[in-house]
Structures are given as structure tokens and as C-alpha cells.
Design brief:
Helix 2 (92-102) packs across helix 3 (108-115), helix 8 crosses helix 10 (330-340) and helix 8 runs antiparallel to helix 14 (428-443). 38% of the residues lie in helices and 16% in strands. The strands form six sheets. Strands 1, 3, 4, 5, 6 and 8 form a six-stranded mixed sheet that branches. Strands 2-7 form a two-stranded antiparallel sheet. By secondary structure, the chain is α+β, with helices and mostly antiparallel strands. The protein has helices at residues 8-42, 92-102, 108-115, 130-139, 161-164, 176-185, 205-221, 277-286, 321-326, 330-340, 342-351, 376-383, 392-403, 428-443; strands at residues 50-51, 60-61, 64-66, 72-84, 122-128, 144-153, 188-189, 198-200, 227-232, 239-245, 295-297, 302-304, 307-309, 318-320, 359-360, 363-364. The protein is elongated and about 120 Å long. Strand 9 and strand 10 (239-245) form a beta hairpin.
Amino acid sequence: MAFLADTPASNAPGRGRRALVAVVLFAAFATVSARLVSLASDLPNINRFTFADNAQKQSLSRPDIIDRNGQILATDIRVYWLQANPSVVSNADEAAEQLADALSGLSVDETRTKLKSGSRFAWIKRGLTPREAAAVHDLGIPGLTLVEAPQRFYPAAETLSHVLGHTDVDNKGLAGLERYIDGQYAPTFGDAGDTRRTLRSTIDLRVQHVVRSELASALTLYRAKAAGAILMNVNSGDVLALSSLPDFDPNKRDNALNANRQNRLVADTYELGSVFKAFTVAMALDAGLAGPRDQFDIATPLQINRFTLRDAHAKSQFASVENILIHSSNTGAARLGLKAGPVRQKEFLSRIGLLSPIETQIGRSGKPLHPDVWRDINTATISYGHGLATSPLAFATATASLVNGGMKIQPRFLTGEPIAARERLIQASTSRAMRRMMHLTVELGTGR
């Protein structure tokens, strides 16, 4: 029984040894724990490749855009951005080669340089598809992270590039409707495809496809540098189709920077020639200066200071106002313009929107070019479409007012946007007369 009768003094050395061992173990565990915390904050995935949490998303989620019939025009898809912590990549050379094999277009040399930088962060590649992300994941290279992010996708590719515009690498709108959306509907951080708002465009994708196809054929046939067309509802201002060639694929955003890819229908201005005679005739009718059947001398050359204007195609000495439009007489249009005078002509063109840019949902139209001092010779040449340059979209908008009963419209590319307030620009009787004459111009005259 003696072994049961140990005294406190005899057990003291054992307790001391146990306490020492406990202190050592505690210190060791504390050191390991601190190291683990440090590694966790520096590199969440040191032992395995990880997909970043949704909270780490870097890109903006945008609403879908659909056409007037519900067809998807623009939407967000899920892609992945590959980032690295070079300071913990153990074998940069091997990692760079493996990544280049897995990702087409990735430079081995550039990747190797990034991975050898010793920094704690570097982008390796953005816009990886799920298949590419899975391939990189399977490499199991420590120090890499995939960040899931939304990226804009345009199913119709080039077909609507100048209407929709495009986004940058961070999914921010740079042009067209995409830029307008950023100003009006503030995209938010969130899941790809998070379409809390779906925006319906006025565009009819079927019509747009036909218009673009016809333009492309004409571009080839006439070996033209560019071509464009607008189809607009003259009563509401809804644009059903707008195509400007050459265009670009917004899925390959860098193509937007190629030469001659601007939206010529909106951004550029042109002297549009004889189609301007419609405004001259409408001005004369609306001001009561002439009626459709009033006669004007078109064969006699028109002398203005040192300038002489002739109508080489005049088939008779006189022509009615409607025939001046139908058969496109320059001297006839000039005489109508001079009868109105510079002041009245300038006021009329300003009233129908041809002397100032127009704001649209796909951008501001080009600033019109017109004389600073409006002389008689300017009035005469502007009457048949020379000496004043405006954008084709502004021209189409003003022309719509000539035939829709005389009311002002505003081009619309989104159906949810308000229609412009009804404002009369010309008399309804003038508009009726213009519809008739423009119909005859196509049926019998130079518009065939």
C-alpha cells in the first residue's frame, strides 16, 4: 500500500515536467496556428485551386436587351477571370507552359514574367469560358484563383453593332444603347444574368437582318466605301432598323476601334443633295408662297452675283412646284428658296431640326455644318441640298415630320422611353400635299 501513500513533495518533479511539456506544446500549436492564419490571408488556395466567392466579382451585371418581338439582342453570360499570387507560385516556368497549353492565345513569355514578378497579384487572362476555367482548374497549380464575372454577349454579332454599341472589359457601356443604359439604368454588381430589368428595343431583328443584307449586297455591287439605311415609324419615332456599314462584331470589342467603323448615320454629316428639295417645297407650301401647281421658270440659267446655276435636265421652260420635286429641278428649287429668302429658309430648317444636333439613346448626332453668314447664293444651293451638311438620322427625323401630318418626333430605340410631346411643325395640309408629291416622285420621277 506504500505506493498509494505518496506525499505531495514526492510528486512535485512530475508535475513540473508535465507543465513544461504543456507550455512547449501550446507554443508550438500557437506558432502553427499563426502561420495558418497568415497563409489563409495571403493565399486562400495555397493547397488547392479555388473559384472565388461571388463577393469577389469585379464586373457589372447588366439588364438584357430584347427586340420588339422578344428576341435576345444582348445578355450577360458567365465567364472567368484568372488571377495569380506570384509570390507563392513554386515553379513559374512550368506553370506558364501549362497555362499556355490550356489557354489558346496566352503568351508563355508574358505569363512567365508575371509569375516571376514576386508580387501578390497579377491578372493572367480575362474572359475564360467555363471549359477553359475547368481545364485550368484541373492543372492544380497553387497560387491561382478564378473570379466568376458577367460578360456581355451579342447573339446577332455584327447585325446590330451600331445600335447596341459595346462594353469594355469591366462590362461598362462604351457606345450605343449600352452607354445609354449606364446613364439611365445604373448596372449593379451581381450574378451574371441577373436581369432585374429587361429592356425592349424598338428594333425588329428580322427587319434589321434584311436591311443589313441588302446594304451589304449594294456595298459590294457599287464598290462603295460605306452604306447606311434607317427604317423609322414616322408617327412614333420608333426605329425598326438602322444599319451603317462597315460595322463590327461587338463580341470582339477591339474591332470597334478599326478604321471606318463609326456610325455614319448618327455621328457623320453629309451634304445630302437633291433629297433636300422636299424641305424647300414644304417650306414654300407651308408659308403660302406657292401652290403645288404654280409654275416656275427652270430652263433659264439663274445668275446670282458671279455664280450661274443651270438645269441641264430641264425638258420645258416652266415646271410646276410638284414637278420641280418629282423631276428634281435644281434651278426650280433655287427659285423657290430665293422666293422665301435666307431668313425664312434658315428659320424653317431650324424649326424642323436640321440646324442643330439631336440627342438619341444611341448617341448625339453630328453637329450640322451651315454658313455663318446666310447669303442668297447659300439659300439657292441649300435649296437643292448643297452647302448644308447634316446627319442622315436628323434628315430622316425631319422628313418624317413632312409626311406624318406635320408633327415633331424624336427617334426612339427603347419602347419603354416616352414618345416626344406632340408639337406641330408644319400644317396638316402641307403634309398631305408632301405625301402625294413624294409618292409621285417614286412612282413617276427621279425616285424610281
